[in-house]
Amino acid sequence: MNVLENFHVHSLPESIRALSREAMEARVWEIKKELGSRLFMPGHYYQKDEVIQFADATGDSLQLAKAAAANKEAEHIVFCGVHFMAETADILSDHDQTVLLPDLRAGCSMADMADIHQVEKAWEALQQELGDTIIPLTYVNSTAAIKAFCGEHDGATLTSSNARALLEWAFTKKERILFLPDQHLGRNTAYQMGIPLADMAVWDPIQEKLEWGGDPENIRMILWKGHCSVHEKFTLDNIREVRRRDPDVNVIVHPECTFDVVDAADQAGSTSFIIDAIQKAPAGSKWAVGTEMNLVNRLAATMTDKTVFSLNPNMCPCLTMNRIDLAHLLWSLESIRDGHPHHIIRVPEDVKEQSLLAIERMFAVPKET
Fold this sequence. Notes:
The chain has 17 helices and 15 strands.
């Protein structure tokens, strides 16, 4: 039995399960007040409303990474997000700070698509075929081990907010980029920079081979064959149907969507970009949004002067992100208050050191280059 399966068996105590939502909320507010500045709770935009209401900082991956790096006062950082985000917070935090993830099952299927052993095998094969012409970049939606790999090989991390700036930076270092682990963000960003699809190859980690039919000398982007299981469910048919029903609808999507969807949308950008675009849009405008459902529902509920709805009417929230719920949040806070914090996320020191190099390179690159 693996760690996560074991955790599932020994889940929430009955003392918390028996509480009403109102009682849980009251306890969370009470503990937050009691801990004061000793506690810092960042919350990702995709979190449930029952959790995000307690966040000390909300944002996308880049915003929360910076918030975690800036906060040096809190003893405990309770990260309301997924595992790779908590790892990043631990990498950026001081040694006397402890990072907790309320539910260890809150992972990321995309991050799991790039295992460090697969990446090392791929790197060796690509070096043999293409020589020392490649620099690795990884989306922050990746494990600490992958971030460390990029740090060790002169690469960097990136987010959907600064992907273009990091690609432009990387091309000043080497002829080619190995882009991990989301092929769609890499493809969409490179194409917007003017790199043709014909110059992009795909590395299949399962088959351990490069999907490429042309002259290897023409390869500029090597895209890892990974994807977001949520964003890949938005389709070109969704866009066609929305526009058939109402030609005045604006279609805005996240760049983790497939190339055809991004190409057909009116706008594409990071979570923060999507929020900002809709906030600044004129009253009465209509928006079909291709991103995680919790955020779409929140936008619809708060921006009532516009019509906001999901591009795919059959979408559900990100299942792993939704592992963090009110009950697990309370359990995590009670463990701190009782002096026995659990679900602590600790990145090994050697991995942390190399990961930090990759993250600091990202922070050093201006968003606009």
